[in-house]
Specification:
elongated, binds 6-O-phosphono-beta-D-fructofuranose, 327 residues, single chain, 11 helices, 4-stranded parallel sheet, alpha/beta
Length: 327
C-alpha cells in the first residue's frame, strides 16, 4: 500500500464527454481513502502556472451528466520544454502533491510519463478522448457519446439527402484514427466510409458514387474522417466538382466538427468513466505508476504509458468490408 498525501488531478488535450464523470470518481475515491485532492486547472498549462484548487466530495456534485470539463483543458507548448516541466514539478511539490491522475489522450500521457521519468512523480492515466485511438483499452471515455452524436447527425442528413436525391459528404473527427468514421458510417448506413488507416484512390470513390447515384438514383452519404488522405470533405468535394461526370449530381458537404466533442455523456461513457476513475486512484494506492487504466473484455487492465502512446490501436478491418455488403 502506497501512502499518498495529496493527489493532483487534471484533464488535458481535447476534452471528451465523460471527463467530468471520471473526475468525480477520482475525487470521491480519494476522499473515501482520506487522501487530499487538488484539482489542476487547464492541464499542463495550469500545472506550470500553479493554477490549483482544493477539491472535496461536494466539488464534484452534479457534474456526472455534463460534457466538457470543470477543470478546463489546454494543449501546452511550454510543457514540451524541460524548463516548463521543472516549473510544473516545483509547483506540485510546493503543494505537497505526490501523486497524479491524468485524464486525457496520447499527448497527455507523453507528458505524464516525462513527469514520472524526470521528477519521480507517481502518475496514472485515464483514457479520455473521443477518438478511441488509445492502445490498452477497448473504448476511451467520450468515444461512445461522440459516435452517437455523429450517427444522430447522419440520420438527420439522410432525411434531407433522400428528399432531394443528393450526395452528402459528412466529415467526422479523427485526425489520425478512423474509429468514429467507421462506426458512425456503419451505424448511419453510409454508402462509403473513408478513414486515415486505408489508402483510397479518388478514382474508386468517383466510380462508387457514380454507380450508386446514376444507376439507382438515390441519396448517397460518404462518411469521411477529417484526417483521410483525400483531404476530408472539402478535398473530396473539390475533386468531384472539378469532374464533368459529376455536373448533374447535387452535392453538399457537412463538417460535424466540435459538435462531436460536446453534450451529455451516454450511459456507457458515464459508467466507463466512473470505473476508470476509481481504478486510477486504487492503482496509485497499490503502488502502480506510469501506467494507464483501461477496460479490456470488461476487465480493468493496466498498460505502461509508453506502450499506450508508442503503439497504434488497430481498427477492425472486417467492419470496413461490411459497408460493401450493406450499402
Ligand atoms: O483528439 C481529439 C480531437 O477531437 C481530434 O479528433 C481532432 O482532430 C482534434 O481533437 C481537434 O483539436 P482542437 O479542438 O484542439 O482543434
Amino acid at each position: 500500500m502506497q501512502d499518498i498525501e495529496c493527489l493532483g488531478v487534471y484533464t488535458s488535450g481535447g476534452d471528451a464527454p465523460g471527463m467530468n464523470a471520471c473526475l468525480r470518481a477520482v475525487v470521491r475515491t480519494a476522499v473515501a481513502n482520506d487522501i487530499e485532492v487538488m484539482g489542476i486547472r487547464r492541464g499542463y498549462e495550469g500545472m506550470i502556472a500553479g493554477d490549483f484548487v482544493e477539491m472535496e466530495r461536494r466539488s464534484v456534485s452534479n457534474i456526472l451528466q455534463s460534457g466538457g470539463t470543470i477543470l478546463k483543458s489546454a494543449r501546452s507548448e511550454a510543457f514540451r520544454t524541460e524548463e516548463g516541466r521543472q516549473r510544473a514539478a516545483d509547483n506540485l511539490r510546493e503543494n505537497s502533491i505526490d501523486a497524479l491522475v491524468a485524464i486525457g489522450g496520447d499527448g497527455t500521457f507523453r507528458g505524464a510519463s516525462k513527469l514520472c521519468d524526470e521528477h519521480g512523480l507517481g502518475v496514472v492515466g485515464c483514457p479520455g478522448t473521443i477518438d478511441n485511438d488509445l492502445y490498452g483499452t477497448d473504448q476511451t471515455i467520450g468515444y461512445d457519446t461522440a459516435l452517437n452524436t455523429a450517427i444522430d447527425n447522419i440520420d438527420r442528413i439522410r432525411d434531407t439527402a433522400d428528399a432531394h436525391n443528393r450526395l452528402f459528404l459528412v466529415e467526422v473527427m479523427g485526425r489520425d484514427a478512423g474509429f468514429i468514421a467507421l462506426n458512425s458510417g456503419i451505424g448511419g448506413g453510409a454508402e462509403l466510409i473513408l478513414i486515415p488507416e486505408t489508402i483510397t484512390e479518388m478514382s474508386m470513390v468517383k466510380e462508387r458514387i457514380l454507380s450508386l447515384m446514376t444507376a439507382q438514383r438515390r441519396s448517397t452519404i460518404v462518411v469521411v474522417a477529417e484526417g483521410d488522405e483525400l483531404g476530408g470533405a472539402q478535398g473530396i468535394e473539390r475533386a468531384l466538382r472539378d469532374d464533368e461526370a459529376f455536373s448533374d449530381i447535387e452535392l453538399r458537404s457537412t463538417i460535424l466538427g466540435h459538435t462531436q466533442r460536446g453534450g451529455a455523456p451516454t450511459a456507457s461513457d458515464r459508467v466507463l468513466a466512473s470505473r476508470l476513475g476509481v481504478a486510477a486512484v486504487e492503482s496509485l494506492m497499490d503502488g502502480h505508476s506510469d501506467v494507464m487504466v483501461g477496460v479490456t473484455n470488461n476487465e480493468i487492465k493496466l498498460t505502461p504509458l509508453h506502450n499506450v502512446y508508442g503503439r497504434r490501436k488497430s481498427i477492425d478491418y472486417d467492419l470496413l468490408k461490411l459497408t460493401q455488403i450493406l450499402s
